Amino acid sequence: MGSIVKIMSYIKIQQITKSYHERRKPLCTDKSASSEILVLNDINLEFKKGEMVCILGPSGCGKSTLLRMIAGFETPSSGQVLIKDKPVTGPSDDNIFVFQHSGLLPWMTVWENVILGVRHLEEQERNARTQEYIDIVDLNGFEQHYPHQLSGGMLRRAELARAVAVQPEMLIMDEPFSGLDFLTHMKIREELVNMHEYLKKSMLIVTHDIDDALIMGDRIIVMSNRPSRVKLEKVLDFGRPRDLSRIPELNELRDELFFMLGVSYAV
Ligand code: ADP
Ligand code: MG
Questions:
Q1: What ligand has the least distance to the C-alpha of 55?
Q2: Residue 34: per-residue pLDDT
Q3: pLDDT for 29
């Protein structure tokens, strides 16, 4: 009998729902008015090791909430998140790193910030790794700069180097390009794709930009309006780099996604 190669699901999201109490109390005093809002409604998803998955969805549909539950910062109202078949009960450092803007310590240089992630290694390896991650994000020459001395794009690169230095099994990113100008956005996106090709890390990226998802994702997930369900899941089995204008299937899907997210693209 030949060997069966089974691709393990790294993360499983099983029948997750999440409700919140309304933040603002309604003005009316009607006690029967419910103050619970259902944000996520029966979400079932699986993520494989090494996959780059992009999540798209309208604002307020619960994307950040979902990421926070995977990272263990929040608990679902029902259902569960499993990482390697173990239920998530709280944040775990070694599995998952949540990429954050302003994640650098302002009183430390780029070098010092990145080396923090590999501080447990012995000196030679520590230095080599730090240099490697700084090189990946194209910041060589800026090792001794402080965060405030960097441009917006360089800062984001330094934050990425800091994130991958921790060597997480999965990198979770909530709108990683927010606040960047158009060209910097394109460049950082390219860095991220290169980084993924090089490091083969699992990445889960929330973006509101359809082109980001089409260019980066091994798979895309589209969520509906609140109470949110998974509206579409699609494997993007195209190589990288991807030139959207030359791949008719992606162009078609792009129109479909614009329509799905409520925008008429033909403006
Ligand atoms: P998205 O990231 O898709 O824009 P969020 O996950 O941030 O959406 O939020 C989804 C919904 O849940 C929003 O209506 C938001 O107001 C609500 N929400 C998020 N976090 C909380 C919270 N801690 N308490 C109450 N409501 C919340
Ligand atoms: Mg959000």
A1: 1
A2: 59
A3: 59
DSSP for the chain? Answer: -PPPP---EEEEEEEEEEEEE-SSPPSS--TTS--EEEEEEEEEEEEETT-EEEEE--TTSSHHHHHHHHTTSS--SEEEEEETTEE--S--TTTEEEE-TT-S-TTS-HHHHHHHTTTTS-HHHHHHHHHHHHHHTT-TT-TT--GGGS-HHHHHHHHHHHHHHT--SEEEEESTTTT--HHHHHHHHHHHHHHHHHH--EEEEE-S-HHHHHHH-SEEEEE-SSSB-EEEEEE----SS--GGG-HHHHHHHHHHHHHTT-----
Over residues 219-246, the pLDDT tens digits come to 999 999 999 999 999 999 998 889 888 9
Least confidently predicted of 52-61, 93-102, 121-130: 93-102
Answer whether 91 contacts ligand 1 (Cβ < 6 A): no
Q: What is the pLDDT of residues 77-117, one digit of tens each?
A: 999 999 888 899 888 765 777 777 778 999 999 999 999 98
Tell me: pLDDT of 22 over 60.
yes
Q: How far is the CA of 52 from the centre of ligand 1 (A)?
A: 24
Give yes or no for residue 130 CB within 6 A of ligand 1: no
Which homologous superfamily does the CATH classification assign to the domain defined by 11-18+37-95+169-262? P-loop containing nucleotide triphosphate hydrolases (3.40.50.300)
Ligand 2 centroid, distance to 64 Cα (angstroms): 4
Domain limits, CATH 3.40.50.300, in the chain:
11-18+37-95+169-262
Cα 92 to ligand 1 centre (Å)? 22
